Amino acid sequence: MNYEAFNQFCGSLAATTYVMQWGNSHVWKVGGKVFAIGGWAKDKQPAFTFKTSERNFYFLRECEGYIPAPYFANRGMKWIQQTDTHPEKDDDLQYYLTESHRLVSLGLTKAKQKELGLNQDLS
Hints:
It is built from four helices and six strands. It has helices spanning 3-12, 54-60, 90-106, 110-116; strands at 16-21, 25-30, 33-38, 48-51, 66-68, 79-82.
């Protein structure tokens, strides 16, 4: 996936906003909270950072092409950076971006979730 496809996909998720910050990184937020970042690769290749469940964090950090996310994981947060952006990993990345969006949106207040029309199907 390239940054254009990353931005298009993240923009298709509910109630998202985009900002370019942190060294010209593509930063996507839901309810004002970051859920995905495109950028920060050491070798100038695309890299994508996202929040994960604890289980996915421990799984992905052992997989080739994924590392604990710089600046996040070393602070105890469960964020992963995908450094292998070959097209065969696009479906996986879309899944993890969608999950990151869901996890971050669940951390918003109930009032904010309702305002944004998020998680309305959850009891």
